[in-house]
Specification:
The structure holds 2 protein chains of 2 kinds.
Chain A (H helix, E strand, L loop, with lengths): L29 H8 L3 H17 L3 E3 L8 E3 L2 E8 L1 H26 L4 H4 L5 H5 L21 E2 L2 E4 L5 E5 L8 H14 L15 H11 L11 E4 L8 H11 L2 E3 L4 E4 L2 E6 L2 E4 L2 E4 L22 H7 L3 E3 L16 H9 L6 E2 L2 E3 L3 H9 L4 E5 L9 E2 L5 H13 L4 E5 L5 E6 L2 E10 L2 E3 L3 E3 L4 E5 L13 E8 L18
Parallel strand pairs in A: 3-24, 6-14, 7-8, 7-12, 12-13
Antiparallel strand pairs in A: 1-2, 4-21, 5-6, 5-20, 9-10, 10-11, 15-18, 16-17, 16-18, 19-20, 20-23, 21-22, 23-24
Helix pairs in contact in A: 2-6, 3-10, 7-8
Chain B lengths: L2 H33 L7 H7 L3 H6 L6 H9 L8 H13 L7 H16 L2 H7 L1 H22 L4 H31 L2 H9 L4 H7 L6 H10 L7 H14 L9 H14 L10 H24 L22
Helix pairs in contact in B: 1-4, 1-5, 1-8, 1-9, 1-10, 2-9, 4-7, 5-6, 6-8, 7-8, 9-12, 9-13, 9-15, 13-14, 14-15
Classes of the chains: A alpha+beta, B mainly alpha.
């Protein structure tokens, strides 16, 4: 790498996924590193312009709330891909499937089972019952095949040693998968042919897999060819692009609440030819807006009578109602225990080190080093409400301490993970930027993990915040189908076929 | 298909057609004022064709070529302007994105971005011809991509029904407005009227090389093969309507209304000197709007829906999909 874009690349003391501490590309990363290294800053800008043109004309956008001008923004995708080796992915894939399996069982146990895990004291009963995600309306509503987390979006990160850790489980309405597919399609247009011999695992089948999982979850009465639809809050929702994308990928209708009616516990959509029965609803509306009869009575997003129909078993709603209890961040520390309890296995992927603040000892210990920890509200997602201790002012920390003291159940503290970095295009050059990974796991006939997922990248120098609503970007994520033989590597490479 | 989606496609079609027709009429008018000095050009008439005269008056603009063109093309506040029509068409398409082939959506995006990125006012002052060429070109790209990539399902049909009804209304109103000049006027008046709907060559070939004013009216209303004549649009709409899936077993109300309007036009004596053409056009305009109203009631609002439809029965495949 003499004189190329990588010539003065700075690792910054972090774990860099592309470049090892010796300055050479890590195994599996060479073709991409070499290809980028050979570019000039102008080449990089040229490809950046091409990418912007592709994204704009394909209308790949997301919506930022609270901005006066142009709520619609072009999706930010960095050109440098993130590569995950086949052997690394193998562990991740099995670990994610294991985790989702255990969580599905936990939710079944809780809502339609004997609550054995609570009776056995593995997870504190009071903790579950006090969760804002615990939904009494979901009691005794069975879900075909127990596929409660039909789509899970588990967030994983790599720390200073490169090991994967689970940061949070998103089990309600995880979004982002459309960008996984669009990033891949965009990369194929922008870097045409550059990496066609690398053996990158395909993500194109997601729509088929999702549809098959949804049909698998249909009520038995639906017959051989259940009618599936996607329920969206509407065109002004920040994830509307994705809702339309998924409906298109599956070839099903994208409905809003006003398109559905419930008659005698049967759900139907209003079509140009009258009412048509619906069997499975992939809903992208939060629990509390699903049905004004039992939840928010003032909301017009949902469908009156929907929950009664779900309870009558004429329609399946996915993800199931009440999943929020399992991605409550104060319940998350118990997931490894759930894996042990239900599966008799040890977790293949660890949690990030987490302190539960309702425990007096843990809370006081955490208060002693407030400025070293990350503080998170238990029920939020999307990075909202988070305080990063090392970057917070004394006043912010003091306010956080008051907030936690008033509601210790409502917060957790975590050790700061020194997020791994991946080279990213900045001003015609390459600089390391911190990344995380939103994975997508489907519970259908079996549990399926989509190869890769959405790599989110904090494009601001030094930032750890990767959410697109807060200035984050994304990267196409390549899982290698087979690791290239690497004579320099100490361990034999991959070999998974 | 979903009633709401059908309605959005219908309106996307109407707005796209409106953008194209507006550009076409403005282009012909601007061009006409230069090379056909004998044609009587009333810029205010264009506002009537697009039905935005009162909105125009509210802006306090003066009725002249410059102001009218700017209002009809570049005024983002005016719902009748080209830029608004394209924006609204794209919004409608976005809400039915999953029904559209990617190429249709991409074309709509590129069209929208092109107009947003241009300085339309400067274009109108400098090279209006190029601007109109761009707008018409994009509209034609849109219809071309729609033709080439959309499956012939109900989505395609509702989109085209919107285009056809809008085109029929625009041609009707244009003729009604131009008639005062056409009936007493010159070759240039006939030429300007025909070129506003790109019909000069078609008329010469199908009818007469001499642009005889009276025949022009009959041609634009009743020609069965010229694709921008009102009769052609209505016949084509009738065909599409009849092919919609999920039709009631007896004739639906929209088909009856459209059939009446179409046959009324088809068998009318419009080229007889005693005919009051503007009055006939007004009646036709009203008739076409009643077709749109019937569609809204029957397909978009489910006004004919009876409670107790066959919900308890097994799932029925959705309309328009195989």
């Amino acid at each position: 790498m003499a004189g190329g874009l990588f010539s003065d690349y700075d690792l910054g003391g972090f774990y860099d996924e592309a470049i090892g501490t010796n300055g050479a590309p890590r195994p599996g990363q060479e073709p991409v590193v070499d290809w980028f290294d050979a570019l000039t800053p102008d080449d990089l800008r040229y490809h950046g312009d091409l990418r912007d043109d592709v994204l704009r004309s394909r209308g790949i956008t997301f919506t930022v709330y609270g901005e006066a001008q142009g709520i619609e923004r072009t999706w930010p995708m960095d050109l440098f891909p993130r590569i995950i080796r086949a052997d690394e992915w193998d562990v991740l894939e099995r670990g994610l499937a294991q985790r989702v399996d255990a969580v599905n069982r936990f939710l079944e146990d809780l809502y339609v089972g004997d609550q054995a895990i609570l009776n056995d004291g593995v997870v504190p009963r009071w903790l579950v019952m006090s969760s804002s995600g615990f939904e009494r309306e979901a009691f005794n509503i069975s879900v075909p095949n127990g596929a409660r987390c039909l789509v899970s979006g588990v967030d994983v990160v790599r720390g200073a040693d490169g090991r994967f850790l689970v940061l949070e489980d998103n089990l309600r309405n995880p979004s982002g998968v459309s960008y996984v597919l669009e990033n891949r399609a965009t990369m194929a247009r922008v870097l045409t042919g550059a990496f066609d011999r690398m053996g990158i695992r395909s993500v194109d089948h997601y729509g088929r897999s999702l549809l098959s999982a949804l049909k698998h979850a249909a009520p038995p009465a639906a017959g051989d060819d259940p009618v599936v639809c996607v329920l969206t809050p509407g065109v002004f929702n920040s994830a509307y692009f994705e809702h339309a994308f998924l409906a298109r990928q599956m070839g099903v209708e994208l409905v809003e609440g006003r398109d559905l009616v419930v008659d005698d516990h049967v759900v139907a959509m209003r079509t140009t030819g009258g009412l048509r029965r619906v069997d499975v609803i992939y809903r992208r509306i939060d629990d509390h807006f699903l049905d004004p009869v039992v939840f928010e009575s003032g909301s017009s997003l949902g469908v009156p009578g929907l929950m009664a129909a779900v309870r009558a078993g004429t329609v399946t709603v996915a993800n199931a109602v009440g999943n929020g209890v399992a991605d409550d961040k104060a319940v998350y520390p118990y997931v490894p225990a759930m894996i042990r309890y239900y599966l008799g296995e040890e977790a293949l992927i660890d949690n990030a080190t987490t302190y539960v603040l309702w425990d007096d000892d843990e809370r006081n210990a955490a208060f002693d080093r407030m400025d070293e920890l990350v503080w998170k509200p238990v029920a939020e997602s999307g990075g909202y409400g988070i305080l990063i201790g090392p970057q917070a002012s004394d006043a912010e920390l003091a306010a956080m301490r008051d907030t936690v003291e008033a509601d210790p159940r409502g917060w957790i503290a975590q050790e700061v993970v020194a997020l791994s970095r991946v080279p990213s295009c900045v001003d015609g050059g390459l600089e390391g930027r911190h990344v995380d990974l939103r994975t997508f796991v489907l519970t259908g006939e079996s549990i399926e993990v989509i190869p890769g997922g959405l790599t989110r990248v904090a494009m601001r120098k030094g930032s750890l915040i990767v959410n697109s609503s807060q200035g984050g970007g994304s990267k196409d994520t390549w899982v290698l189908s087979e690791d290239p033989p690497d004579p320099a590597a100490a361990e034999p490479a991959g070999g998974t076929i | 298909m979903l009633a709401r989606h059908a309605e959005n496609l219908f309106w996307a079609g109407r707005y796209l057609e409106r953008a194209e027709d507006t550009a076409r009429i403005l282009d012909a008018t601007q061009h006409g004022t230069i090379i056909r000095p004998d044609a009587a050009v009333q810029w205010g008439d264009l506002l009537t064709v697009i039905r935005v005269r009162s909105e125009f008056t509210e802006t306090g603009r003066e009725v002249n070529g410059h102001e009218v063109s700017e209002f009809l093309v570049a005024d983002a506040e005016s719902p009748g302007s080209v830029i608004s029509s394209v924006r609204t068409a794209r919004e409608n398409l976005r809400s039915v994105r999953e029904h559209l082939p990617t190429e249709v959506w991409e074309a709509a995006n590129r069209f929208h971005h092109e107009l947003e990125n241009r300085d339309l006012v400067a274009d109108l002052d400098g090279e209006p011809y190029t601007l109109f060429l761009v707008i018409k070109g994009w509209c034609q790209t849109m219809s071309g991509v729609i033709e080439q990539t959309m499956p012939r399902d109900d989505g395609y049909r509702f989109l085209n029904l919107g285009m056809l009804l809008e085109r029929a209304v625009m041609t009707t109103r244009l003729l009604s407005i131009r008639w005062a000049h056409l009936s007493t006027g010159t070759f240039d008046d006939a030429h300007l009227t025909l070129s506003s709907v790109s019909a000069v060559e078609a008329f010469r070939r199908l009818k007469s090389p001499n642009l005889e004013p009276m025949a022009v009216g009959a041609f634009l209303l009743q020609d069965p093969v010229f694709p921008r004549s009102v009769l052609y649009c209505l016949m084509r709409a009738e065909t599409l309507l009849g092919r919609l899936s999920d039709q009631p077993s007896d004739m639906g109300r929209t088909e009856r209304v459209l059939g009446r309007v179409r046959s009324g036009l088809e068998f009318a004596d419009v080229d007889h000197p005693s005919v009051d053409l503007p009055a006939a056009c007004a009646e036709l305009d009203e008739g076409i709007r009643s077709v749109a109203d019937a569609m809204t009631a029957q397909y978009f609002r489910n006004a004919d829906l009876q409670p107790g439809s066959p919900l308890g029965t097994a799932s029925v495949p959705l309309g328009g999909r195989r």
